[in-house]
Design brief:
The complex is a heterodimer of chains A (257) and B (343). Chain A has 257 residues and is mainly beta. Chain A contains three helices and twelve strands, in the order αβββββββαββββαβ. The N and C termini of chain A lie far apart (58 Å). The chains are: A mainly beta (257), B mainly alpha (343).
Chain lengths: 257, 343
């Protein structure tokens, strides 16, 4: 009548862990609807953002390498810290702005430069638009989380408030004399809009968006920046305006698997 | 009664499933089972302090750290026999002491520090620098603590420790240092809208917080330190202790660089600079105004628009700056009995 052997006690015991575990895990789910729904396709995997820094293709090394800028000055970098915000992928078909990535990222080039962007819609994009600094809604004193790092980037209220967009510091040779420079950028009027045109294909896997910041672009195009006459930018709207214009093409973008 | 063959795996797996549902369960902290959590009362404009999950603040831990801070037993076995932390760090002068030679850094708001000692010999958390203090500086006699009539019970209450270890002493001291918070100076109260600074003090603040004085880059509000290292131009060349952070890193650009001290209670912590070379705040301000010396490692932040390293402050601007610096005195911190000796 029944050809199947009745499971004996040890077999049931062995199966029980699997059964209970399955019940237990199911109990964690928020939706208890038993009806399986194929629903939308599986969400895209998380995209990682990585910032890289170089000088005309030479990787950035702090305080040890002298680079040459457009004006012919040899310079070394001792500190590079900046925000990026308003990140948007540009759509491939219309050129309109595609997915926007909310919030801001503080990059200290000597420390971690990798961030989680969350899942982005798969597709083809023509590039990335970003602000080197903080969008006006974020560039308000106290608008960012009150971390030690953000506090150290504060832009005094008496000078307009908000935060430093960028601190780019080091030494250059003024003749034969090592001389400090501090390229500090801030205030909404000086917020650079940067566009990196690139063929970016997001396939839904765990890819990495790599933004490469070429520091020499800060010193050229459209203005040749002279460190001798502009070694200290904070407080000078004119100098910060030059930096704003020059930074527009400072980034390039690629997508890595 | 023996459990059945079904009972054990079922119970085990119910437990497993329960664990599977928990999110971000932190590792069980180390304090004793009956400790009382302690929360720092901080103004809204203060960043969150650095508190490792492995050493949460408890009333018992802080009380124990406070006692150790004031107890000469800490140095019973070391080269500083007869000294406690408090021997050189006096509350009425912001837990420092007037001295010649190497200046004594104030113990204030170190809960936000990641670099310790003038040249950053220890970097990390308060636990890291306390380990240095316990093992190298004071060479604490742990065995002596274990046979002390009081301490075994206090450590048992704070950490559930049956046997006192270096780690327990480190954690207790670190908790105490996190309790030493200054946040009620006249400037703090001004920022909270409780008082209004005088016109001279406000003018000093404008000088401090602008490119006129350019003090804020290294001494940002509200902690009044960037926790970094800078060669501020005290000399054109450096030898001995004056090499600063270079002694630790060997990096040429660290030559002459020292940790940025907080300016909290600065009016009471003379003398100034790592070597105590300035006796008054007026001397300090005048140094920044006209005394900065060039060297290859001079911090870029000491660069000024134009070829000169001077600020060009007027006598009134200098006086205003000193007035502003005086607003950083926190009488609450300096007189709080809870920060004083328990003995």
């Amino acid at each position: 009548m029944n050809d199947h052997p009745r499971p004996d006690r040890p077999t049931l015991t062995a199966l029980l862990p699997v059964m209970v575990l399955a019940v237990g895990l199911h109990g964690c789910a928020k939706d208890d609807d038993p009806a399986p729904d194929p629903g939308p396709p599986a969400p895209a995997a998380t995209v990682t953002l990585r910032l890289e820094h170089h000088v005309d293709g030479v990787p950035l090394l702090f305080d040890t390498v002298l680079y040459a800028n457009e004006a012919g000055h040899a310079y070394a970098v001792s500190h590079l810290e900046y925000y990026i915000s308003g990140i948007k992928l540009l759509t491939a078909d219309t050129g309109d702005v595609g997915p926007a990535i909310p919030g801001a990222f503080l990059i200290n080039a000597e420390q971690g430069t990798t961030f989680d962007l969350g899942a982005l819609a798969p597709g083809g994009y023509t590039g990335v638009e970003l602000r080197l600094g903080l969008t006006p809604d974020l560039n308000i004193t106290g608008a960012l989380p009150n971390t030690i790092a953000n506090v150290n980037m504060a832009w005094p209220d008496g000078m307009g408030g908000g935060y430093h967009f960028m601190k780019f510091e080091g030494h250059f040779l003024n003749g034969a004399t090592p001389t400090g420079y501090a390229m500090h950028l801030g205030r909404n009027e000086n917020l650079p809009t940067c566009i990196a045109t690139a063929d970016l294909q997001l396939d839904g896997s765990a890819q990495t968006l790599v933004l490469r910041f070429n520091l020499n672009e800060v010193f050229r195009t459209p203005h040749t920046y002279d460190l001798v006459s502009g070694s200290y930018s904070m407080g000078s709207m004119m100098l910060m305006g030059l930096l704003r214009d020059n930074c527009a093409d400072a980034f390039t973008a690629t997508m890595e698997p | 009664m023996r459990p059945s063959a079904l009972t054990i795996p079922a119970a085990t797996l119910v437990l497993l499933c329960t664990v599977a549902c928990r999110r971000d369960v932190p590792e069980e902290p180390s304090p004793g089972t009956h400790t009382t959590p302690y929360s720092l009362d901080l103004p809204a404009n203060f960043p969150a302090p650095i508190i490792p999950a492995s050493n949460p603040l408890t009333q018992e831990g802080i009380a124990l750290g406070r006692r150790l801070y004031y107890d000469t037993l800490l140095s019973q076995n070391g080269p500083f026999q007869g000294f406690a932390c408090a021997s050189c760090h006096h509350q009425p002068v912001s837990f420092t002491t007037p001295t010649s030679g190497t200046n004594v850094l104030a113990h204030v708001n170190l809960a936000w520090s990641t670099n310790f000692l003038w040249n950053g010999k220890v970097c990390g958390t308060l636990e890291d620098v306390m380990r240095f203090e316990v093992e190298e500086f004071f060479q604490v006699d742990i065995a002596g603590l274990n046979t002390h009539p009081d301490y075994p019970l206090l450590f048992q209450q704070a950490f559930g420790a049956d046997h006192i270890t270096t780690d327990h002493v480190v954690k207790a001291l670190a908790q105490w240092f996190r309790r030493m918070v200054s946040s009620n100076s006249r400037l703090d109260r001004h920022l909270r809208g409780e008082i209004i600074l005088t016109p001279e003090e406000m003018n000093g603040a404008m000088t401090f917080l602008s490119e006129v004085g350019d003090c804020f880059h290294c001494h940002p509000l509200p902690l009044m330190t960037d926790n970094g290292f800078h060669n501020i131009g005290l000399a054109g060349s450096f030898t001995g202790f004056d090499v600063g952070r270079y002694a630790i890193t060997g990096a040429p650009m660290d030559m002459g660089a020292f940790k940025t001290p907080t300016l909290r209670n600065i009016a009471l912590t003379a003398p100034y600079m790592h070597d105590g070379r300035f006796q008054t705040l007026e001397e300090v301000v005048e140094f920044y105004n006209s005394g900065v010396q060039h060297s290859a490692s001079l911090d870029p932040l000491m660069t000024k628009p134009g070829p000169s390293l001077t600020l060009g402050l007027t006598p009134q601007e200098k006086a205003n700056l000193v007035s502003f610096l005086n607003t950083l005195t926190d009488e609450t911190f300096l007189t709080d009995p809870a920060l004083g000796s328990p003995f």
